[in-house]
Design a protein that fits this description.
The protein has helices at 2-23, 50-60, 63-79, 81-102, 119-127, 133-136, 138-149, 151-160, 164-176, 179-193, 200-218, 220-234, 242-259, 268-274, 281-306, 308-316, 338-353, 358-374, 385-401, 405-413, 417-428, 433-440, 448-460, 472-479, 489-509; strands at 107-109, 112-114. 69% of the residues lie in helices and 1% in strands. By secondary structure, it is an all-alpha fold. It has 25 helices and 2 strands.
Protein backbone atom coordinates (compact mmCIF):
# COMPACT_ATOMS: atom_id res chain seq x y z
CA UNK A 1 0.00 0.00 0.00
CA UNK A 2 2.88 2.36 0.79
CA UNK A 3 4.39 1.69 -2.62
CA UNK A 4 1.08 2.43 -4.32
CA UNK A 5 0.83 5.71 -2.47
CA UNK A 6 4.39 6.62 -3.44
CA UNK A 7 3.70 5.83 -7.11
CA UNK A 8 0.57 7.96 -7.10
CA UNK A 9 2.52 10.80 -5.47
CA UNK A 10 5.16 10.60 -8.22
CA UNK A 11 2.47 10.74 -10.92
CA UNK A 12 0.84 13.77 -9.30
CA UNK A 13 4.19 15.55 -9.02
CA UNK A 14 5.14 14.82 -12.65
CA UNK A 15 1.86 15.78 -14.26
CA UNK A 16 0.42 18.42 -11.95
CA UNK A 17 2.88 20.01 -9.53
CA UNK A 18 6.03 20.30 -11.70
CA UNK A 19 4.24 22.37 -14.38
CA UNK A 20 3.38 24.97 -11.74
CA UNK A 21 6.92 25.02 -10.34
CA UNK A 22 8.49 25.16 -13.82
CA UNK A 23 7.13 28.57 -14.69
CA UNK A 24 6.19 29.87 -11.30
CA UNK A 25 2.68 30.33 -10.03
CA UNK A 26 1.06 33.51 -8.85
CA UNK A 27 -1.99 34.18 -6.79
CA UNK A 28 -2.84 37.33 -8.72
CA UNK A 29 -5.27 37.15 -11.61
CA UNK A 30 -3.51 37.09 -14.97
CA UNK A 31 -4.91 38.54 -18.15
CA UNK A 32 -5.92 35.85 -20.64
CA UNK A 33 -3.31 35.96 -23.41
CA UNK A 34 -3.39 33.98 -26.64
CA UNK A 35 -0.97 31.06 -26.90
CA UNK A 36 0.62 30.04 -29.16
CA UNK A 37 1.46 33.43 -30.60
CA UNK A 38 0.74 34.10 -34.26
CA UNK A 39 3.90 33.44 -36.26
CA UNK A 40 3.84 36.89 -37.86
CA UNK A 41 3.73 38.56 -34.43
CA UNK A 42 7.39 37.78 -33.70
CA UNK A 43 8.58 40.50 -36.13
CA UNK A 44 11.71 38.55 -37.01
CA UNK A 45 11.73 38.98 -40.79
CA UNK A 46 15.01 40.89 -40.50
CA UNK A 47 16.80 37.77 -39.22
CA UNK A 48 18.43 35.60 -41.86
CA UNK A 49 19.87 32.73 -39.82
CA UNK A 50 17.48 30.04 -38.57
CA UNK A 51 19.29 29.80 -35.24
CA UNK A 52 18.80 33.49 -34.54
CA UNK A 53 15.12 33.29 -35.49
CA UNK A 54 14.54 30.42 -33.09
CA UNK A 55 16.45 32.07 -30.25
CA UNK A 56 14.52 35.28 -30.82
CA UNK A 57 11.22 33.40 -30.61
CA UNK A 58 12.28 31.60 -27.45
CA UNK A 59 13.31 34.90 -25.92
CA UNK A 60 9.97 36.45 -26.87
CA UNK A 61 8.03 33.44 -25.61
CA UNK A 62 9.93 30.98 -23.34
CA UNK A 63 6.86 28.76 -23.28
CA UNK A 64 7.69 27.74 -26.87
CA UNK A 65 10.73 25.82 -25.67
CA UNK A 66 8.85 24.27 -22.74
CA UNK A 67 5.98 22.82 -24.79
CA UNK A 68 8.43 21.55 -27.42
CA UNK A 69 10.46 19.79 -24.73
CA UNK A 70 7.25 18.18 -23.50
CA UNK A 71 6.57 17.07 -27.07
CA UNK A 72 10.08 15.61 -27.18
CA UNK A 73 9.33 13.83 -23.91
CA UNK A 74 6.25 12.25 -25.48
CA UNK A 75 8.30 11.08 -28.47
CA UNK A 76 10.92 9.56 -26.18
CA UNK A 77 8.08 7.88 -24.27
CA UNK A 78 6.99 6.10 -27.47
CA UNK A 79 10.44 4.49 -27.67
CA UNK A 80 10.04 3.20 -24.09
CA UNK A 81 6.78 1.33 -24.61
CA UNK A 82 8.55 -2.05 -24.72
CA UNK A 83 10.29 -1.34 -21.42
CA UNK A 84 7.03 -0.46 -19.67
CA UNK A 85 5.30 -3.58 -20.96
CA UNK A 86 8.19 -5.79 -19.86
CA UNK A 87 8.06 -4.28 -16.38
CA UNK A 88 4.27 -4.72 -16.31
CA UNK A 89 4.59 -8.41 -17.11
CA UNK A 90 7.27 -8.76 -14.44
CA UNK A 91 5.04 -7.20 -11.77
CA UNK A 92 2.07 -9.23 -12.95
CA UNK A 93 3.98 -12.49 -12.58
CA UNK A 94 5.05 -11.48 -9.07
CA UNK A 95 1.45 -10.68 -8.21
CA UNK A 96 0.19 -14.02 -9.54
CA UNK A 97 2.83 -15.80 -7.47
CA UNK A 98 1.72 -13.80 -4.42
CA UNK A 99 -1.93 -14.76 -5.01
CA UNK A 100 -1.04 -18.42 -5.38
CA UNK A 101 1.14 -18.41 -2.27
CA UNK A 102 -1.50 -16.77 -0.10
CA UNK A 103 -4.47 -18.67 -1.53
CA UNK A 104 -6.34 -15.55 -2.70
CA UNK A 105 -9.33 -16.52 -4.83
CA UNK A 106 -11.42 -14.38 -7.24
CA UNK A 107 -14.46 -12.71 -5.69
CA UNK A 108 -17.88 -13.46 -7.09
CA UNK A 109 -20.54 -10.75 -7.04
CA UNK A 110 -23.82 -12.16 -8.37
CA UNK A 111 -22.03 -14.04 -11.12
CA UNK A 112 -19.50 -11.31 -11.91
CA UNK A 113 -16.04 -12.68 -11.19
CA UNK A 114 -13.60 -9.99 -10.02
CA UNK A 115 -9.90 -10.88 -10.10
CA UNK A 116 -7.37 -9.45 -7.68
CA UNK A 117 -5.12 -7.33 -9.91
CA UNK A 118 -1.72 -5.76 -9.43
CA UNK A 119 -2.02 -1.97 -9.29
CA UNK A 120 1.67 -1.57 -10.12
CA UNK A 121 1.40 -3.87 -13.16
CA UNK A 122 -1.66 -2.02 -14.46
CA UNK A 123 0.07 1.34 -14.11
CA UNK A 124 3.01 0.10 -16.15
CA UNK A 125 0.64 -1.40 -18.73
CA UNK A 126 -1.02 2.01 -18.89
CA UNK A 127 2.28 3.78 -19.57
CA UNK A 128 3.09 1.08 -22.13
CA UNK A 129 -0.13 1.75 -24.07
CA UNK A 130 1.17 3.53 -27.13
CA UNK A 131 -2.10 5.21 -28.09
CA UNK A 132 -2.49 7.15 -24.84
CA UNK A 133 1.02 8.61 -24.75
CA UNK A 134 0.42 11.92 -26.52
CA UNK A 135 -2.89 12.42 -24.76
CA UNK A 136 -1.14 11.83 -21.43
CA UNK A 137 1.54 14.42 -22.20
CA UNK A 138 -1.07 17.06 -23.00
CA UNK A 139 -1.84 17.24 -19.26
CA UNK A 140 1.33 19.16 -18.35
CA UNK A 141 0.90 21.24 -21.53
CA UNK A 142 -2.53 22.39 -20.35
CA UNK A 143 -1.37 23.16 -16.81
CA UNK A 144 1.71 25.04 -17.94
CA UNK A 145 -0.27 27.28 -20.29
CA UNK A 146 -2.83 27.88 -17.54
CA UNK A 147 -0.12 28.64 -14.99
CA UNK A 148 1.45 31.35 -17.10
CA UNK A 149 -1.52 32.79 -18.99
CA UNK A 150 -4.58 31.69 -17.05
CA UNK A 151 -7.50 29.34 -17.48
CA UNK A 152 -9.05 31.18 -20.43
CA UNK A 153 -5.89 30.98 -22.52
CA UNK A 154 -5.35 27.29 -21.81
CA UNK A 155 -8.97 26.46 -22.49
CA UNK A 156 -8.95 28.73 -25.52
CA UNK A 157 -6.08 26.86 -27.14
CA UNK A 158 -7.58 23.42 -26.54
CA UNK A 159 -10.93 24.67 -27.86
CA UNK A 160 -9.22 26.00 -31.00
CA UNK A 161 -7.71 22.64 -31.93
CA UNK A 162 -9.53 20.93 -34.80
CA UNK A 163 -10.40 17.37 -33.74
CA UNK A 164 -12.21 16.50 -36.98
CA UNK A 165 -9.47 14.13 -38.15
CA UNK A 166 -9.35 12.07 -34.92
CA UNK A 167 -13.15 11.75 -34.93
CA UNK A 168 -13.14 10.78 -38.60
CA UNK A 169 -10.45 8.14 -38.06
CA UNK A 170 -12.43 6.55 -35.20
CA UNK A 171 -15.51 6.22 -37.40
CA UNK A 172 -13.80 5.17 -40.64
CA UNK A 173 -11.82 2.51 -38.73
CA UNK A 174 -14.98 1.11 -37.17
CA UNK A 175 -16.93 0.95 -40.45
CA UNK A 176 -13.96 -0.36 -42.47
CA UNK A 177 -13.44 -3.13 -39.89
CA UNK A 178 -17.07 -4.29 -40.08
CA UNK A 179 -17.59 -7.83 -41.38
CA UNK A 180 -19.46 -6.89 -44.60
CA UNK A 181 -16.76 -4.41 -45.67
CA UNK A 182 -13.95 -6.79 -44.75
CA UNK A 183 -15.55 -9.70 -46.59
CA UNK A 184 -16.06 -7.53 -49.69
CA UNK A 185 -12.44 -6.31 -49.62
CA UNK A 186 -11.06 -9.78 -48.95
CA UNK A 187 -13.06 -11.21 -51.88
CA UNK A 188 -11.55 -8.63 -54.24
CA UNK A 189 -8.02 -9.28 -52.98
CA UNK A 190 -8.54 -13.05 -53.12
CA UNK A 191 -9.50 -12.86 -56.78
CA UNK A 192 -6.31 -10.90 -57.47
CA UNK A 193 -4.21 -13.28 -55.35
CA UNK A 194 -5.52 -16.18 -57.45
CA UNK A 195 -3.10 -15.07 -60.14
CA UNK A 196 -0.37 -16.27 -57.77
CA UNK A 197 -2.39 -19.36 -56.75
CA UNK A 198 -3.33 -17.83 -53.38
CA UNK A 199 0.09 -18.53 -51.90
CA UNK A 200 1.40 -16.54 -48.96
CA UNK A 201 3.58 -14.58 -51.36
CA UNK A 202 0.60 -13.78 -53.59
CA UNK A 203 -1.48 -12.54 -50.66
CA UNK A 204 1.43 -10.54 -49.25
CA UNK A 205 2.19 -8.79 -52.54
CA UNK A 206 -1.50 -8.14 -53.29
CA UNK A 207 -2.30 -6.64 -49.90
CA UNK A 208 0.78 -4.40 -49.88
CA UNK A 209 0.12 -3.18 -53.42
CA UNK A 210 -3.65 -2.87 -53.84
CA UNK A 211 -4.41 -1.93 -50.22
CA UNK A 212 -2.33 1.28 -50.16
CA UNK A 213 -3.57 2.40 -53.60
CA UNK A 214 -7.11 1.87 -52.32
CA UNK A 215 -6.27 4.61 -49.83
CA UNK A 216 -6.59 7.20 -52.61
CA UNK A 217 -10.32 6.51 -52.73
CA UNK A 218 -11.48 5.36 -49.28
CA UNK A 219 -8.88 7.51 -47.44
CA UNK A 220 -5.65 6.26 -45.92
CA UNK A 221 -7.12 5.36 -42.47
CA UNK A 222 -9.74 3.15 -44.16
CA UNK A 223 -7.10 1.50 -46.35
CA UNK A 224 -4.83 0.96 -43.35
CA UNK A 225 -7.61 -0.72 -41.38
CA UNK A 226 -8.55 -3.09 -44.19
CA UNK A 227 -4.96 -3.87 -45.20
CA UNK A 228 -3.79 -4.48 -41.63
CA UNK A 229 -6.74 -6.74 -40.77
CA UNK A 230 -6.30 -8.89 -43.90
CA UNK A 231 -2.52 -8.90 -43.47
CA UNK A 232 -3.04 -10.16 -39.91
CA UNK A 233 -5.15 -13.05 -41.16
CA UNK A 234 -3.18 -13.98 -44.27
CA UNK A 235 0.36 -13.24 -43.10
CA UNK A 236 0.98 -12.53 -39.42
CA UNK A 237 -1.06 -15.45 -38.12
CA UNK A 238 1.34 -17.73 -40.02
CA UNK A 239 4.11 -16.59 -37.66
CA UNK A 240 6.77 -15.02 -39.90
CA UNK A 241 10.23 -14.33 -38.48
CA UNK A 242 10.49 -11.16 -36.40
CA UNK A 243 12.74 -9.56 -39.03
CA UNK A 244 10.20 -10.26 -41.79
CA UNK A 245 7.36 -9.08 -39.55
CA UNK A 246 9.02 -5.69 -38.99
CA UNK A 247 10.01 -5.38 -42.66
CA UNK A 248 6.38 -5.95 -43.64
CA UNK A 249 4.83 -3.46 -41.23
CA UNK A 250 7.45 -0.87 -42.20
CA UNK A 251 6.63 -1.45 -45.86
CA UNK A 252 2.90 -1.23 -45.13
CA UNK A 253 3.25 2.13 -43.37
CA UNK A 254 5.36 3.66 -46.14
CA UNK A 255 3.08 2.34 -48.89
CA UNK A 256 -0.04 3.64 -47.15
CA UNK A 257 1.58 7.06 -46.69
CA UNK A 258 2.25 7.48 -50.42
CA UNK A 259 -0.68 5.39 -51.66
CA UNK A 260 -3.19 8.17 -51.02
CA UNK A 261 -1.55 10.63 -53.41
CA UNK A 262 -3.50 9.61 -56.52
CA UNK A 263 -6.26 11.98 -55.38
CA UNK A 264 -6.39 15.31 -53.57
CA UNK A 265 -8.72 14.33 -50.72
CA UNK A 266 -7.51 11.01 -49.25
CA UNK A 267 -4.07 11.70 -47.76
CA UNK A 268 -4.11 14.11 -44.77
CA UNK A 269 -0.84 15.90 -45.74
CA UNK A 270 -2.21 16.53 -49.24
CA UNK A 271 -5.60 17.57 -47.96
CA UNK A 272 -4.00 20.30 -45.84
CA UNK A 273 -2.65 22.14 -48.88
CA UNK A 274 -4.71 21.00 -51.90
CA UNK A 275 -7.32 23.74 -51.70
CA UNK A 276 -4.91 26.55 -50.88
CA UNK A 277 -2.46 25.58 -53.62
CA UNK A 278 -5.20 24.65 -56.15
CA UNK A 279 -4.11 21.03 -56.53
CA UNK A 280 -6.88 18.90 -58.07
CA UNK A 281 -7.10 15.16 -58.78
CA UNK A 282 -5.42 15.44 -62.19
CA UNK A 283 -2.51 17.36 -60.68
CA UNK A 284 -2.03 14.77 -57.94
CA UNK A 285 -2.25 11.78 -60.28
CA UNK A 286 0.23 13.22 -62.80
CA UNK A 287 2.72 14.72 -60.33
CA UNK A 288 2.57 12.31 -57.38
CA UNK A 289 0.28 9.33 -57.96
CA UNK A 290 2.07 7.42 -60.71
CA UNK A 291 5.41 7.92 -58.98
CA UNK A 292 3.94 6.55 -55.74
CA UNK A 293 2.62 3.46 -57.55
CA UNK A 294 6.04 2.93 -59.14
CA UNK A 295 7.73 3.25 -55.75
CA UNK A 296 5.28 0.79 -54.16
CA UNK A 297 5.95 -1.82 -56.86
CA UNK A 298 9.74 -1.40 -56.62
CA UNK A 299 9.78 -1.58 -52.80
CA UNK A 300 7.45 -4.57 -52.73
CA UNK A 301 9.50 -6.34 -55.37
CA UNK A 302 12.76 -5.72 -53.52
CA UNK A 303 11.38 -6.99 -50.20
CA UNK A 304 9.82 -9.96 -52.01
CA UNK A 305 13.22 -10.99 -53.35
CA UNK A 306 14.91 -10.41 -49.99
CA UNK A 307 12.47 -12.65 -48.10
CA UNK A 308 11.45 -15.10 -50.84
CA UNK A 309 12.83 -18.08 -48.87
CA UNK A 310 10.53 -17.29 -45.95
CA UNK A 311 7.37 -17.52 -48.02
CA UNK A 312 7.89 -21.27 -48.37
CA UNK A 313 7.87 -21.59 -44.58
CA UNK A 314 4.67 -19.57 -44.38
CA UNK A 315 2.95 -21.84 -46.93
CA UNK A 316 3.85 -24.85 -44.81
CA UNK A 317 2.32 -23.36 -41.68
CA UNK A 318 -0.82 -25.16 -40.54
CA UNK A 319 -2.80 -23.69 -37.64
CA UNK A 320 -3.76 -26.03 -34.83
CA UNK A 321 -7.40 -27.03 -35.09
CA UNK A 322 -9.24 -28.47 -32.11
CA UNK A 323 -12.39 -30.18 -33.40
CA UNK A 324 -13.84 -30.20 -29.89
CA UNK A 325 -13.86 -26.39 -29.81
CA UNK A 326 -16.59 -24.67 -31.86
CA UNK A 327 -15.56 -22.26 -34.62
CA UNK A 328 -15.03 -18.73 -33.37
CA UNK A 329 -18.03 -16.56 -34.29
CA UNK A 330 -15.79 -13.85 -35.75
CA UNK A 331 -13.97 -16.39 -37.96
CA UNK A 332 -17.01 -17.93 -39.65
CA UNK A 333 -17.11 -17.98 -43.45
CA UNK A 334 -20.88 -17.54 -43.98
CA UNK A 335 -21.76 -15.42 -47.00
CA UNK A 336 -23.31 -12.02 -46.36
CA UNK A 337 -26.30 -10.93 -48.51
CA UNK A 338 -25.30 -8.44 -51.21
CA UNK A 339 -27.76 -5.69 -50.07
CA UNK A 340 -26.12 -5.61 -46.63
CA UNK A 341 -22.67 -5.29 -48.19
CA UNK A 342 -23.86 -2.50 -50.49
CA UNK A 343 -25.37 -0.53 -47.61
CA UNK A 344 -22.09 -0.78 -45.71
CA UNK A 345 -20.18 0.37 -48.77
CA UNK A 346 -22.58 3.32 -49.12
CA UNK A 347 -22.03 4.26 -45.46
CA UNK A 348 -18.28 4.02 -46.00
CA UNK A 349 -18.50 6.27 -49.07
CA UNK A 350 -20.71 8.72 -47.17
CA UNK A 351 -18.14 8.93 -44.36
CA UNK A 352 -15.35 9.61 -46.85
CA UNK A 353 -17.45 12.17 -48.74
CA UNK A 354 -18.32 14.06 -45.53
CA UNK A 355 -14.90 13.61 -43.89
CA UNK A 356 -14.65 17.37 -43.13
CA UNK A 357 -18.13 17.65 -41.62
CA UNK A 358 -18.36 15.93 -38.23
CA UNK A 359 -22.10 16.58 -37.92
CA UNK A 360 -22.68 14.62 -41.13
CA UNK A 361 -20.30 11.70 -40.74
CA UNK A 362 -21.26 11.22 -37.08
CA UNK A 363 -24.90 11.11 -38.17
CA UNK A 364 -23.94 8.45 -40.73
CA UNK A 365 -22.15 6.54 -37.97
CA UNK A 366 -25.35 6.45 -35.92
CA UNK A 367 -27.14 4.95 -38.92
CA UNK A 368 -24.34 2.40 -39.23
CA UNK A 369 -24.70 1.38 -35.57
CA UNK A 370 -28.46 1.03 -35.94
CA UNK A 371 -28.18 -1.00 -39.15
CA UNK A 372 -25.47 -3.14 -37.61
CA UNK A 373 -27.81 -4.02 -34.75
CA UNK A 374 -30.66 -4.79 -37.14
CA UNK A 375 -28.41 -7.23 -39.05
CA UNK A 376 -26.46 -8.57 -36.07
CA UNK A 377 -26.57 -12.18 -37.31
CA UNK A 378 -24.44 -11.12 -40.30
CA UNK A 379 -22.06 -8.97 -38.25
CA UNK A 380 -19.15 -9.48 -35.90
CA UNK A 381 -18.91 -7.78 -32.52
CA UNK A 382 -18.10 -4.09 -32.90
CA UNK A 383 -15.04 -3.40 -30.77
CA UNK A 384 -14.68 0.37 -30.41
CA UNK A 385 -11.63 0.19 -28.15
CA UNK A 386 -8.93 0.10 -30.89
CA UNK A 387 -10.55 2.96 -32.84
CA UNK A 388 -11.05 5.08 -29.71
CA UNK A 389 -7.44 4.55 -28.64
CA UNK A 390 -6.25 5.65 -32.08
CA UNK A 391 -8.53 8.68 -31.83
CA UNK A 392 -6.96 9.52 -28.46
CA UNK A 393 -3.50 9.21 -29.99
CA UNK A 394 -4.31 11.55 -32.87
CA UNK A 395 -6.12 14.05 -30.64
CA UNK A 396 -3.05 14.32 -28.43
CA UNK A 397 -0.82 14.60 -31.47
CA UNK A 398 -2.74 17.51 -33.02
CA UNK A 399 -2.69 19.33 -29.66
CA UNK A 400 1.09 19.02 -29.48
CA UNK A 401 1.54 19.62 -33.21
CA UNK A 402 -0.28 22.94 -33.08
CA UNK A 403 2.38 24.26 -30.71
CA UNK A 404 5.40 23.39 -32.87
CA UNK A 405 4.95 25.98 -35.63
CA UNK A 406 7.43 28.38 -34.02
CA UNK A 407 10.36 26.14 -35.06
CA UNK A 408 9.03 24.01 -37.94
CA UNK A 409 8.07 27.02 -40.08
CA UNK A 410 11.50 28.75 -40.03
CA UNK A 411 13.35 25.48 -40.65
CA UNK A 412 11.25 24.61 -43.71
CA UNK A 413 11.17 28.18 -45.01
CA UNK A 414 14.95 28.44 -45.03
CA UNK A 415 15.65 25.43 -47.27
CA UNK A 416 15.94 24.96 -51.03
CA UNK A 417 14.17 22.16 -52.95
CA UNK A 418 16.28 19.06 -52.20
CA UNK A 419 17.15 20.00 -48.59
CA UNK A 420 13.48 20.97 -48.15
CA UNK A 421 12.30 17.54 -49.22
CA UNK A 422 14.85 15.82 -47.00
CA UNK A 423 14.00 18.16 -44.13
CA UNK A 424 10.27 17.49 -44.50
CA UNK A 425 10.97 13.73 -44.51
CA UNK A 426 13.01 14.04 -41.32
CA UNK A 427 10.53 16.31 -39.54
CA UNK A 428 7.65 14.02 -40.51
CA UNK A 429 9.26 11.22 -38.51
CA UNK A 430 8.80 13.32 -35.35
CA UNK A 431 5.57 15.11 -36.16
CA UNK A 432 2.41 14.24 -38.07
CA UNK A 433 3.07 14.85 -41.78
CA UNK A 434 -0.22 16.73 -42.09
CA UNK A 435 1.07 19.26 -39.56
CA UNK A 436 4.30 19.63 -41.56
CA UNK A 437 2.49 20.41 -44.81
CA UNK A 438 -0.02 22.68 -43.05
CA UNK A 439 2.79 24.78 -41.58
CA UNK A 440 4.44 24.84 -45.00
CA UNK A 441 1.28 26.33 -46.49
CA UNK A 442 1.81 29.34 -44.21
CA UNK A 443 5.18 30.14 -45.80
CA UNK A 444 4.45 32.81 -48.45
CA UNK A 445 7.77 32.47 -50.30
CA UNK A 446 7.30 28.88 -51.50
CA UNK A 447 7.63 28.36 -55.27
CA UNK A 448 5.79 25.56 -57.08
CA UNK A 449 8.85 23.33 -56.94
CA UNK A 450 9.22 23.95 -53.21
CA UNK A 451 5.56 23.08 -52.65
CA UNK A 452 6.11 19.81 -54.50
CA UNK A 453 9.26 19.11 -52.48
CA UNK A 454 7.69 19.58 -49.06
CA UNK A 455 4.65 17.39 -49.82
CA UNK A 456 6.82 14.72 -51.45
CA UNK A 457 9.05 14.71 -48.37
CA UNK A 458 6.09 14.59 -45.99
CA UNK A 459 4.45 11.55 -47.63
CA UNK A 460 7.82 9.85 -48.14
CA UNK A 461 8.63 9.94 -44.42
CA UNK A 462 5.14 8.88 -43.32
CA UNK A 463 6.15 5.32 -42.46
CA UNK A 464 9.26 5.88 -40.36
CA UNK A 465 7.46 6.19 -37.01
CA UNK A 466 4.04 5.62 -35.53
CA UNK A 467 3.40 9.36 -35.28
CA UNK A 468 4.53 10.23 -38.81
CA UNK A 469 1.18 9.58 -40.52
CA UNK A 470 -2.35 9.62 -39.12
CA UNK A 471 -3.27 6.03 -40.17
CA UNK A 472 -0.17 4.48 -38.55
CA UNK A 473 -1.65 4.19 -35.04
CA UNK A 474 -4.54 2.22 -36.57
CA UNK A 475 -2.08 -0.27 -38.04
CA UNK A 476 -0.24 -0.53 -34.73
CA UNK A 477 -3.48 -1.11 -32.85
CA UNK A 478 -4.41 -4.01 -35.15
CA UNK A 479 -1.00 -5.68 -35.51
CA UNK A 480 0.88 -5.02 -32.26
CA UNK A 481 -0.17 -8.33 -30.64
CA UNK A 482 1.90 -10.18 -33.25
CA UNK A 483 5.06 -8.57 -31.86
CA UNK A 484 6.61 -9.41 -28.48
CA UNK A 485 6.16 -6.50 -26.06
CA UNK A 486 4.48 -4.44 -28.75
CA UNK A 487 6.01 -2.78 -31.80
CA UNK A 488 9.52 -1.40 -31.30
CA UNK A 489 9.91 2.14 -32.64
CA UNK A 490 13.52 1.45 -33.65
CA UNK A 491 12.74 -1.79 -35.50
CA UNK A 492 9.80 -0.12 -37.23
CA UNK A 493 12.09 2.65 -38.49
CA UNK A 494 14.61 0.07 -39.73
CA UNK A 495 11.87 -1.85 -41.54
CA UNK A 496 10.61 1.33 -43.20
CA UNK A 497 14.01 2.82 -44.07
CA UNK A 498 14.64 1.15 -47.45
CA UNK A 499 11.09 1.75 -48.78
CA UNK A 500 11.41 5.37 -47.62
CA UNK A 501 14.61 5.79 -49.62
CA UNK A 502 12.98 4.20 -52.68
CA UNK A 503 9.94 6.48 -52.46
CA UNK A 504 12.15 9.53 -52.03
CA UNK A 505 14.19 8.65 -55.11
CA UNK A 506 11.03 8.11 -57.15
CA UNK A 507 9.70 11.55 -56.22
CA UNK A 508 13.09 13.22 -56.80
CA UNK A 509 14.18 11.56 -60.07
CA UNK A 510 10.94 11.25 -62.03
Amino acid sequence: MKRRGLLLLILIVVFFIIPFIALGSSSELKEPLAFPKALDSYADSNFQEIGKILMHRIHQEPLNLVVSLLFLGAIIHTFCVGFFRKMAEKFEKRHLAYIKKNGITPKNYNGDVVMNVSFKAEIFYFFGELEIIFGLWTIPVFWIIMTKYGWESARGYFDSVNFTEPMFVVIIMTIAASRPVMQFAETILRNIAKIGKNTSAAWWFTILTIGPILGSFITEPGAMTISALILAKQFYERKPSLKFAYATIGLLFVNISVGGTLTHFAAPPVLMVASKWNWDMWFMATNFGWKAVMGILIANGLYFLAFRSEFKKLDQFKPEVNKDVPIDWDQREDKIPLPIILIHICLLVWTVFTSHDPALFIFGFFIFLGFRRATAHHQNDTNLKPALLVGCFLAGLVIHGGLQGWWIGPILGGLSEVPLMLGATFLTAFNDNAAVTYLSSLVPTFSESMKYAVVAGAVTGGGLTVIANAPNPAGVSILRNFFPYGISALNLALGAFIPTVIMGLCFMLF
